[in-house]
Amino acid sequence: MAVRYLPPSLAAAQRSPSASPHLRVLVSARAGGVARAVFQRLYSGSEPEGPHTAALAGDGSLLRARIAGGQLYYQRVAAPGPGADFATWTSLGSAQQAVALAARGARVVLAYVAADGSVALRESADHGVTLGAPTTVVPSTAGAQRLALAIAPSGDLLLAYATASQVVALKRTGGVWGSPATWPHSLGSVSGLACHHGGDYDLLVTGAEAGGRAGVWTVVYGDGYRQAVGTWSPLREVQRADAGSGVSFAAPCLAAPDVYRLGFVESYSGSQPYARLQLSHLVPGIDFADNWWREPLPSDITGAQGVAMGEGPAALWLSSPNGVWLADLSAPALDVADRLLRLEMDEEPFGGALRLELADDGSLTAPDSPLRPGAEVAVHLGYLTADGPQSSPAPRFWATTVEVRDEGGRRTVLVEATSAWGLLASWRARRQFAWAPGERNVFGILSFLWARAGVPFSTVSYSPAAVDIRPAFTVHPGQTGLEAVRRLLALVPDVMLLAENFALLKYPEESEAAAYAYGEGHPVLAAVTRQSLPPANRVQVFGQAAFAEAFLWESVALAGDRLRQVHDLNISSPAQAADRALWEARRIRLATVGEEVLVPVNCAQELYDVVTVTAPSLGLAAARRRVLSIRTRYDARRGTWQQWLGLGAP
Prior knowledge:
Among the domains are: about 35-330, 6 Propeller (Neuraminidase), CATH 2.120.10.10; about 420-505, Phage tail protein beta-alpha-beta fold, CATH 3.55.50; about 535-590, Phage tail proteins - 2 layer sandwich fold (2-Layer Sandwich). A hairpin with a 5-residue loop joins strand 19 and strand 20. It has seven helices and 49 strands. With about 650 residues, it is mostly beta strands. Strands 1, 29, 30, 31, 32, 33, 34, 35, 41, 42, 46, 47, 48 and 49 form a 14-stranded mixed β-sheet that branches. Strands 13, 14, 15, 16 and 17 form a five-stranded antiparallel β-sheet that branches. Strands 4-28-27-26 form a four-stranded antiparallel β-sheet, with no helix packed on it.
């Protein structure tokens, strides 16, 4: 069935031969549905690097703390922004090694390692204007070296601290501290710690394994959301570097102004050393525990101590002892539909492209315009209906080229954009990713790969194989995400389509019910039928002591033997080989377009939908077909508003 729902009045309008088109074309500074964090530096000072922290109080004030020369310094900026005073600090006494801040509403908690090695807290109930006297909560014998704090909506407080190689959670409920809870994991060293409450207590850890391999990991201390209260989740990898590579990680930070965002410092000690901030975020709609992070992106912010993160309404703050940065995350959308002269939108397996021609008075390419390479373009297809203008969202695209033309005083902007498949193709593995047999299923590996490209992944439907097959699978350094996903999909009978900013898995069963009818209420304006030879008509599958074949007999009789061989050591039985051979043969059929029909735009049409087609001139009477390509065309000057649908066997 079609994924996108249409209101009845819109469904009726698209069947009318006299309906007028209505489009929305929204351009915004987003990637995969997430606002791009473009930072403006508000402060450049001369304070020395050192341990530091920051938080935003409920009244919008920015709170900062740092340690320098054995002293703890604190700052509260009531109205942070351009021109604010970020240079005035108040000394709070002696401290060493680590400091952490947390704020929720009017409550503020400051933790630090005191001069004697104990951990002390100071608290505020007035947005950090005043801080109470220090209270010791962890003795010096505990050996705390890194600190992180989080306040739950209930008011519970978690203090997480790291020793040289262990992480410990200490929770206060109703004003009473519980017993320390040491995690069950083992690292050779812990270089940094950050914490945020997102249903559970979500922690980000940097350090190295006992064998020297450096890493960045997430771990959850349960508060009853995804993890049982008082228990620890497995340690989940975000980034790693091999032992002996000269790469290390430190100074993690976490915030969730819109989605979860993280940062950490990647340092290299080789011939061209650096210490550079790396930034990443979760894909939309995903919990911290799922660990689906976009590939960390390098920043031009440098320094071994990194930054602290703070979150405000539609804003992300970064702070170091001598710097403050602000990123506006509102990402307002600019609707350019009233400038639209021409639209060409192509949807196809493993690809897709969008081309726009826009009338321009200069404002579309002004410095503050979101229309620039990298911008997200959200197209909504619709009609003027009895209930007013209505539309349905198409898959998202991302601008790759923005071209301005002036021809005879007529200024236009041409935009070329790629689909989420293009984002996947632009991601290349920085290192090897490998899964052992039985470690993760196809669904889970697909989720990881799409997330690295910043695209959320979900399903329309899925085959049993997508969750049952747990293959040995490797993504080699330099390989694109597109190459990896194509190899992975070859293991199962499923296909993938795009909807809004999501990549969706679908199991195209031959018995699937038709979602729509063309030629019966929705006119067919033109039709083409073609016969072509498939790229292969005989499939041989070789596994571990297993072999199977499948044939497209109708093609063998016409073209002879056109062989495709598959070698896969994940196949360990004759039954698995037979399934794979049938899937390969079906995949060949699903890639063969037999007819094309021209129709008024169906605002909800999606790839791989099953439809019926009635076109008497081609001998088609309610013939079941599967949609294999969609080409949508709009031309304001010619009055064109149509779709070409490529159709194949269901």
